[in-house]
């Protein structure tokens, strides 16, 4: 039986049993009229014989409704008030009240005390890819400097790993201090601690001093040659954030900064530099940085144009893939030369071929107009670094 017929039968039964006439209900079911809206809800304490009518009129008619039909009455009786027509199987509150793009929680949100979280975000502890990219050239250099047939110095690897965390955090702090007037105009960076106002510049300077003090403690555990070489890198760290204001090649300057560990790692083991080994290794790191950071810069190219900062993404434009293909080839060639001069065994070249394939995959498949894909390809460079490190390790063990 159709719902309107059921309601007419129910109204007739109620009229027969109830001592009070029900003309309103009868007229409601038989001839709905836009000019006769249903009355407001009854008194909170109705007579017992009328309590069965509360469901029928508990909800006032919306002002925008033009008519009242038996089908809408049927929905009001049977469906819960929090039911969402757009999601028929759901009985929870409408999803429209939830944030649309709520970022996923990181380990910083789960484990770091709330008062320390802005400092952790400032040091990018929630985004470890930068630490990996800074640490890998150090690990390459320390391992290639190891005695043939032996494992690298694990204490030195641990020291440089901690140093990479601190130096990367210090570099990000300097960068955010100098760029806070730019970051609040760029969609990807406007939530950073200084740009959003969570931290003040004076707090950032204090945090920078704390990181540099810890870094000094690590540097003092190295030999004198390495101390001087390590301290000289601070000039690059502090000046890099300014480069995007003056040149279209800030990625090249970042390569000079991020790959300083290719020199420092060898010096920490040998107390000297062997140009035949470390200079090709350093050059490879610079070319690698030009590949991954140009891909990274394509995320912000529209915002960079608006605020007037420069990058290789803007310099290369539609020719980006040709440029970074050339830098990728130079990176692999320099790594091969460094390994040859260091007398690494055959496993090194096997892993180097795998690293070259990973780099070629990045360059050939990246969608430079897709921000999320650029970020995925950028983050994948931790595996390139791991492949080169594995090749150096096994190549040194069999050499």
UniProtKB/TrEMBL annotation:
<keyword id="KW-0812">Transmembrane</keyword>
<feature type="compositionally biased region" description="Pro residues">
    <location>
        <begin position="34"/>
        <end position="47"/>
    </location>
</feature>
<feature type="transmembrane region" description="Helical">
    <location>
        <begin position="378"/>
        <end position="398"/>
    </location>
</feature>
<dbReference type="GO" id="GO:0005743">
    <property type="term" value="C:mitochondrial inner membrane"/>
</dbReference>
<keyword id="KW-0414">Isoprene biosynthesis</keyword>
<feature type="transmembrane region" description="Helical">
    <location>
        <begin position="252"/>
        <end position="269"/>
    </location>
</feature>
<keyword id="KW-1133">Transmembrane helix</keyword>
<keyword id="KW-0999">Mitochondrion inner membrane</keyword>
<comment type="function">
    <text>Catalyzes the prenylation of para-hydroxybenzoate (PHB) with an all-trans polyprenyl group. Mediates the second step in the final reaction sequence of coenzyme Q (CoQ) biosynthesis, which is the condensation of the polyisoprenoid side chain with PHB, generating the first membrane-bound Q intermediate.</text>
</comment>
<keyword id="KW-0808">Transferase</keyword>
<comment type="similarity">
    <text>Belongs to the UbiA prenyltransferase family.</text>
</comment>
<dbReference type="Pfam" id="PF01040">
    <property type="entry name" value="UbiA"/>
</dbReference>
<dbReference type="InterPro" id="IPR044878">
    <property type="entry name" value="UbiA_sf"/>
</dbReference>
<feature type="transmembrane region" description="Helical">
    <location>
        <begin position="157"/>
        <end position="178"/>
    </location>
</feature>
<keyword id="KW-0472">Membrane</keyword>
<feature type="region of interest" description="Disordered">
    <location>
        <begin position="24"/>
        <end position="47"/>
    </location>
</feature>
<feature type="transmembrane region" description="Helical">
    <location>
        <begin position="281"/>
        <end position="298"/>
    </location>
</feature>
<dbReference type="InterPro" id="IPR039653">
    <property type="entry name" value="Prenyltransferase"/>
</dbReference>
<keyword id="KW-0831">Ubiquinone biosynthesis</keyword>
<comment type="pathway">
    <text>Cofactor biosynthesis; ubiquinone biosynthesis.</text>
</comment>
<dbReference type="GO" id="GO:0008412">
    <property type="term" value="F:4-hydroxybenzoate polyprenyltransferase activity"/>
</dbReference>
<protein>
    <recommendedName>
        <fullName>4-hydroxybenzoate polyprenyltransferase, mitochondrial</fullName>
        <ecNumber>2.5.1.39</ecNumber>
    </recommendedName>
</protein>
<dbReference type="InterPro" id="IPR030470">
    <property type="entry name" value="UbiA_prenylTrfase_CS"/>
</dbReference>
<keyword id="KW-0496">Mitochondrion</keyword>
<dbReference type="GO" id="GO:0006744">
    <property type="term" value="P:ubiquinone biosynthetic process"/>
</dbReference>
<dbReference type="InterPro" id="IPR006370">
    <property type="entry name" value="HB_polyprenyltransferase-like"/>
</dbReference>
<dbReference type="InterPro" id="IPR000537">
    <property type="entry name" value="UbiA_prenyltransferase"/>
</dbReference>
<feature type="transmembrane region" description="Helical">
    <location>
        <begin position="129"/>
        <end position="151"/>
    </location>
</feature>
<feature type="transmembrane region" description="Helical">
    <location>
        <begin position="198"/>
        <end position="219"/>
    </location>
</feature>
<feature type="transmembrane region" description="Helical">
    <location>
        <begin position="346"/>
        <end position="366"/>
    </location>
</feature>
<feature type="compositionally biased region" description="Low complexity">
    <location>
        <begin position="24"/>
        <end position="33"/>
    </location>
</feature>
<dbReference type="GO" id="GO:0102930">
    <property type="term" value="F:4-hydroxybenzoate geranyltransferase activity"/>
</dbReference>
<dbReference type="GO" id="GO:0008299">
    <property type="term" value="P:isoprenoid biosynthetic process"/>
</dbReference>
């Amino acid at each position: 039986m159709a719902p309107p017929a059921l309601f007419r039968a129910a109204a007739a039964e109620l009229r027969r049993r109830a001592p009070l006439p029900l003309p309103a209900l009868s007229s409601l079911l038989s001839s709905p009229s836009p000019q006769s809206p249903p009355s407001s809800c009854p008194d909170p304490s109705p007579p017992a014989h009328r309590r069965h009518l509360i469901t029928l009129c508990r909800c006032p008619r919306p002002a925008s409704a033009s008519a009242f039909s038996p089908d809408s009455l049927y929905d009001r009786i049977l469906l819960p008030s929090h039911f969402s027509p757009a999601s028929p199987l759901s009985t929870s509150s409408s999803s429209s009240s939830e944030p649309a793009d709520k970022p996923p929680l990181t380990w910083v949100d789960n484990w770091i005390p709330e008062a320390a979280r802005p400092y952790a975000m400032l040091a990018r502890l929630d985004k470890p890819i930068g630490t990996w990219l800074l640490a890998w050239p150090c690990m390459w250099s320390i391992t290639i400097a190891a005695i043939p047939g032996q494992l690298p110095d694990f204490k030195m690897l641990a020291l440089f790993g901690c140093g990479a965390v601190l130096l990367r955090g210090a570099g990000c702090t300097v960068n955010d201090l100098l760029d806070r007037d730019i970051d609040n105009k760029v969609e990807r960076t406007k939530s950073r601690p200084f740009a959003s106002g969570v931290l003040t510049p004076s707090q950032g300077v204090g945090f920078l001093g704390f990181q540099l003090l810890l870094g000094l403690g690590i540097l003092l555990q190295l030999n004198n040659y390495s101390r001087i070489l390590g301290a000289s890198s601070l000039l690059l760290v502090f000046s890099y954030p300014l480069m995007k204001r003056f040149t279209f090649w800030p990625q090249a300057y970042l390569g000079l900064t991020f790959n300083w560990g290719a020199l420092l790692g060898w010096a920490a083991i040998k107390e000297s530099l062997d140009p035949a080994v470390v200079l090709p290794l350093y050059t490879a790191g610079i070319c690698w940085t030009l590949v991954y950071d140009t891909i990274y810069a394509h995320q912000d190219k529209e915002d960079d144009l608006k605020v007037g900062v420069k990058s290789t993404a803007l310099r290369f434009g539609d020719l980006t893939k040709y440029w970074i293909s050339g830098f990728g080839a130079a990176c692999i060639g320099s790594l091969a030369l460094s390994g040859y001069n260091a007398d690494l065994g055959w496993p090194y070249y096997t892993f180097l071929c795998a690293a070259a394939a990973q780099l070629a995959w990045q360059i050939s498949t990246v969608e430079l107009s897709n921000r999320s894909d650029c970020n995925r390809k950028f983050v994948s460079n931790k595996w390139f670094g791991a492949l080169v490190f594995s090749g150096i390790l096994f190549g040194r063990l069999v050499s």
